[in-house]
Amino acid sequence: MPPADTGASTVVVGASAPQSPVTTTAAPASTHERLEPGRPGYRRMSFALFAAGVAAFALLYSTQALLPAVSASFDATAGQASWTVSAATGALALFVLPLSALSERFGRRQMMTASLAIAVLVGLLVPLAPSMGALIALRAVQGAALAGLPASAMAYLAEEVRPKALIAAIGLFVAGNSIGGMSGRILTGWVAQAWGWRAALAAVGLLALACAVAFHFLIPKARNFRPGSLNPKALAKNVATHLADPLLVRLYAIGALFMTVFGAVYTVIGYRLVEEPFSLPQGVIGSIFLVYLVGTVSSAAAGRLVARLGRRGALYLAVTTTAAGLLLSLADQLAAVLLGLVLITAGFFAGHAVASSSVSRTATTGRAQASALYQSAYYLGSSAGGTLGAVAFHAGGWAATVALGLLAVLGVVSITLYGTRVARAERRALVPATR
After folding, report:
1. Residue 115 to residues 122, 146, 150, 356, 409: CA-CA distances in angstroms?
2. How far is CA 378 from its chain centroid?
3. Which residues pair with 181 in a beta bridge?
């Protein structure tokens, strides 16, 4: 299905295509056959990137379920403690573009491996942080290290997987993200309840270490990657070209707004559930993140949603589901709050899978940079959502956090409606004046 289904113009490849950010060696006569379901290597690739996704999200959001305990330990407010999450996601957003450029020179596989190794090493040091400032600094370093993974993974998939199987492959990587987010939060919740938040962070570090080892031994070698020397001017031109593409800019904004909702909800939910009328213990709060399983299903099903509804239709469904979940979470009954979280999670992961795969399919050159810009917007949305969500909660309670989320949802709807009008206008322009 063409990219125009998200409400954008069709990308035309011509002689004026932007220069590659690397000076490449001579192109081979033909590329290797790409991976697809049923082909050798596809299953290994799927398991490897699934493991990488688990490690990345478990590490990136390792403190999120522990924020009430971290606040109590350092006598900090919700807003101050939220920086242990926002510093990691913000650093990832800042470093994802330069590290994606390095992946053009040194390879996607090598960049992903190095990113995971450094992030795991820092993850094993995070539990030893002596102060809130040190904890935030270590988390920022960890986020910067993880920046080499997401855009490189998207570019690896775009190069190594057949286009028809790309959405499904990216969906599996995003599903690994959801499993990592879920398992990390559940693990930290119960370990923190028994032995404290520092032991909980150490447990996440060990989980990520196991996933990193699995990734290293499972990931197939890149067969269609062409390395070259770095070309900063071409990189800047490539980035400028992507930012001048209306479709890509809309997709970046959609990713950022979806993540604003998600970051706000899951940064603050622990504070809400630890207070009246719920008063849940830390272990039970951690188990709330079992709803991430819904995200695993919805992201993996994104390809089928697009096939049935089209890309815009899938986005409308995702945003409607997210909004319904936000409104339902306002109730003071635990069952209603849980159902609201289920809907928010399902809508978010479906929307993210559709938007991110659309970026990979739309960019005809500089795919790593196109994906990196999406990831930058996505994680800036996470940082903004986490911090603003905590500030809103401190100022007006859960209702204020929900209002922030609904405002972001309205932004997604507005962008998608605008894209729909653009696509219709372009189709009318292509109809011959006379029949």
Report:
1. 11, 5, 10, 20, 32
2. 6
3. none
CA 351, 353, 358, 363 dihedral sign is positive
Q: Is the peptide bond before 2 cis (omega within 30 degrees of 0)?
A: no
Distance CA 377, CA 359 (A): 12
CA distance 328 to 338: 9
Q: Which two tokens stand for residue 247?
A: 């479709």
CA 293 to centroid of chain Cα atoms: 16
Comparing C-alpha atoms, which of 366, 393, 390, 398 is closest to residue 103? 366
295: Cβ contacts below 8 Å, ≥ 6 apart: 174, 175, 178, 181, 182, 345, 346, 348, 349
Closest CA to 146 of 122, 180, 176: 122
Separation between Cα atoms, residue 358 and residue 355, nearest integer Å: 5
- If residue 229 lies in a helix (H) or strand (E), which one and from where to where? strand 228-230
Asked whether the beta carbons of 262 and 382 are under 8 A apart, the reply is: yes
Residue 196 phi, psi (nearest 5): 100, 165
Spatial neighbors of 72 by CB under 8 A, at least 6 apart, are none
Dihedral (C-alpha) 183, 188, 189, 191: value to the nearest 10 degrees? 120
Residues 275-304 have pLDDT tens digits of 889 988 878 887 887 887 787 778 777 777
Find the radius of gyration of the CA atoms of the chain: 21
Residue type, 297: V
As a whole number of angstroms, the distance between CA 166 and CA 159 comes to 10
Nearest C-alpha neighbor of 344 from the set 361, 358, 324: 324
Taking only the tens place, the pLDDT of each residue in 3-51 is 333 333 333 323 333 334 444 333 333 456 776 666 767 888 888 888 8
pTM: 0.74
